[in-house]
Amino acid sequence: MKKTSQKTNKLVSKVFLYFFLLVFLFISIFPFYWMFVGSTNHTSKMFTNPPTLTFGDQFMTNLTNLNDSIGIFRVLFNSLFVSLVFVVLSLLVCTFAAYALSKFKFRGRNTIFMTFVLSMMIPYQATIIPLFRMMTEFNLLNTYFALIAPQLCFPFAIFLMRQNFLAFPDSLIESSRIDGAGEFRIFWSVVLPSMKPALAATSIYLFMMQWNNFMWPLVAVNSPEMYTFPVALSSLIGISMIDYGQIMVGISIATIPIIIFFLLLQRHFIAGMLGSAVKG
Amino acid sequence: MSYKRLTPYLFLAPAILLFLCFTAYPIVASLILSFQKLEGGTYVFAGLANYSRLFQDSVFYEALKNTFIFLIVQVPIMLFLALVLANALNSRLLKLRGVFRVGFFMPAVTSLVAYAILFSIMLQDTGLINQFLALFGVENIKWLSTPFWAKFSIIMAMTWRWTGYNMVIYLAAMQNIPEELYEAASLDGAGKFRQFLNITIPQLKPVILFTAIISTISTLQLFDEPYNLTNGGPADATLTLGLYIYRVGFSYFDFGYASAMAYIIVVIVAILSYIQLKVAGDD
């Protein structure tokens, strides 16, 4: 008797558990579905009763309208160019720094590292005005330089890479030195090749960061042909006659590549977003 | 030492140079600017004028109040939800764990601007969410045009975006809790709920502290969501410190005043992080 009631209890809690998780799964992913549906329908279909939940045939019209409003290829190019150049340069700068901070002993090492770490606590808003004035002063507003340069030294990336270098055996570096390899060569051909997973995770993190960056590009760029994608999207909702169809296409384009990328690389992705938060 | 003394500095040079130009200098310049005022086209020293003006600025108080409401309401709800979801997903017997994990995490990879705009469309008076609620007989809610519901909307949107992210952090940390702890508790007759309270939460304390600090810092800087969802409205009900700084700095071009406000955030971040470390630290 007792056994069966225990079994039903287990079953009930299991059903409850799956129900709970499914509700949350639905809440998490349904907005994406609705966004894709919206991008294929006319604006008027976004607010019908009952709601439109099936794909329509207006995608190309919406896309054309969107292109007419913000020059979609231009702003996508800006975002992609800025993000990719940023990832490559920032990865170089931060990996170099992290290597020095983990594999060499020298004066000021801890001070430098602590300064980098503490600077992560400083809110964005506290640096943005002097940065803006600096860019104005040197006539660099509306340039790729202004969009890319300010965050190249990205303390969190240094932190992430340092954690990974710490796990690399010093003896391998020592023996390469004995073999007469130069310091840069050791770094490049002995140490870096074994850092591929860490480099992948860090670059995904940096890419996401820059691709989604909003406040700084909003300030640093004011001519529409230099807009990054988020800034261009945001400019669409300020106007009086909002065409939701084209906005839906816009936010779908901002989302689909990332989702595909995420689904393909989700292990690295999650590692990159988590950083070493979990290792500590 | 078998390497040249200069070597580490060479590796560090690009980072330090960039850091000095684009982080250290602006931090200091901003502090100086916060004590200055624009007079006849140039910035002159104005003592604490900007700060004393802040304490008489009712809009600043509104922004401060709103920011703290978001902080106090949204962060605990999100972190608790993330813990519960992570705990539910942690069972090895659960089927489709991978699907749930990936699904819950998906909102965290979308662009902040894109999701804020998506929510602004769903929350229109005749939008999807009201249509859905109508199925349950709920009256039309004016999500974005009444002060209370506008705040609620921002909290809802942020919770949607960030819960999965925190859940994944907790989930990863839960993998490191020794299985024996649960087995021993099980033998002592502790139920799942007791185990969650007495084993999972204490074991995760450092990670919970980490997520609390990160969420606190990012909530204090909150900008993208209120800018794109409500633009601070209605009647400044969703105006945050981050948004007000942007307004003062880049609509009114009052850089000194905006810098003073930015430094208020720096001070609040420092104080709150210190308190969180003290409260949750190992004494």
Automatic annotation (TrEMBL), chain A:
Keyword flag Nucleotidyltransferase: no
Single GO cellular component term: plasma membrane
Coiled coil: none
Predominant location: membrane
Signal sequence, start to end: none
Membrane topology summary: Multi-pass membrane protein
Matches recorded under Gene3D superfamilies: MetI-like
Entries under PROSITE patterns matching the protein: ABC_TM1
InterPro entries: MetI-like (IPR000515), MetI-like_sf (IPR035906)
Keywords: Cell membrane, Membrane, Transmembrane, Transmembrane helix, Transport
GO biological process: transmembrane transport
Subcellular location: Cell membrane
One Pfam family matching this protein: BPD_transp_1
Membrane among keywords: yes
Transmembrane segments: 15-36, 75-100, 112-132, 144-165, 186-208, 244-265
Every ABC transmembrane type-1 domain range: 76-265
Family of this protein: Belongs to the binding-protein-dependent transport system permease family.
Record-given protein name: Carbohydrate ABC transporter permease
Organism placement in taxonomy: Bacteria, Bacillati, Bacillota, Bacilli, Bacillales
Automatic annotation (TrEMBL), chain B:
Domain of life: Bacteria
GO cellular component, one term: plasma membrane
PROSITE patterns on file: ABC_TM1
Protein keywords: Cell membrane, Membrane, Transmembrane, Transmembrane helix, Transport
One of the GO BP terms on file: transmembrane transport
Every ABC transmembrane type-1 domain range: 64-276
Membrane-traversing stretches: 68-90, 102-123, 143-160, 255-275
Matching InterPro entries: ABC_transporter_permease, MetI-like, MetI-like_sf
Gene3D superfamilies: MetI-like
Family: Belongs to the binding-protein-dependent transport system permease family.
Protein name, entry field: Sugar ABC transporter permease
Organism, scientific name: Radiobacillus deserti
Lineage, uppermost ranks: Bacteria, Bacillati, Bacillota, Bacilli, Bacillales
